[in-house]
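Quick log. Single chain, no ligands specified.
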Amino acid sequence: MEIRLLFKAIGFILLVIIGIPSNTYILLKFAYIRIAEKKLLQTNILLIVLALVNILVTLSRVIPQSLNAIGLEDLLDDSKCKLVLYTYRVSRAMSICVTSLLSCHQCILIAPTTGLWSYLKQKVTQNVLVIIIPIMCINLIMYHNSFLYAHAKKNSTSPYTLHLVYCDLDYLTYINYMVNGTFIALKDLIFVGLMTLTSSYIVYVLLRHKKYMKGIRCSDRDKGKSVEYKASRAVILLVVMYALLFGMDNCMWIYTMTLSNASPVMNEARIVLSCSYSALSPIVIIATNPKLQQRANILQRRTLLPWNQGDSGSSIHVNCISK
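-> predicted structure:
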């Protein structure tokens, strides 16, 4: 086996080994919590949806890449290619949308309970599913062109064809090629920007709270610092991971649009970047979410972490005596 193919196989197999168990753990853990405690926080619902679409991304894109890397050829016909690529593109879009919604949800939770923020706390944080369903429907409609352009791999020399292992996406014309690429890049950029803004506000509130805690004398002071640190770290890790992986993916995507025929190596690198978030983000969530780490007999505790908040009001409470 060539060195390039060996590294390719190892990389994609690692994504499968990491992604599927970690996302499955999140699903099973929250399913147990729902049965044991008879309820789920709205943020936990978001995490369930995110874990589910992450699994679909792995199944529809990473596993075919892994099978191809170990030498399996001609695995998918035209109809299977259309289904697999459609599933991947919708799942990837939902992963981006849900992550952005998670950040917005947390931003609203920790904002002051005044004016517009108070209205958003009542309407948005209590109706997560009502928001997710139309987003999913929009993505299902937006990516229907996968059924038009996807087909089994052929020896196509068209400059407007993306070669994706077992399948090709042949956009036929320059206009279709550019419109599709520009749409995907702009959509991702909007959601990355939204997530960055809301996460920046979260960090700002946490830093302001840390400054306030310096004027507090109580036994929970060190604990408060610990919670703030974990919350800040979780937000920063997800934002940086999201921005870097999808940012590099879109930069490479824009670059390939300027080429007459993108190389398979570049397409494979883009696939690794676009799939890595689905495999790595659940590790960050599990590592920073006490709800996913606690034993079954421990009662639910509300913390300052972005995905373990209460569903109304500000998350910052201090019950101490000021100096």
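The longest strand covers residues 161-164.
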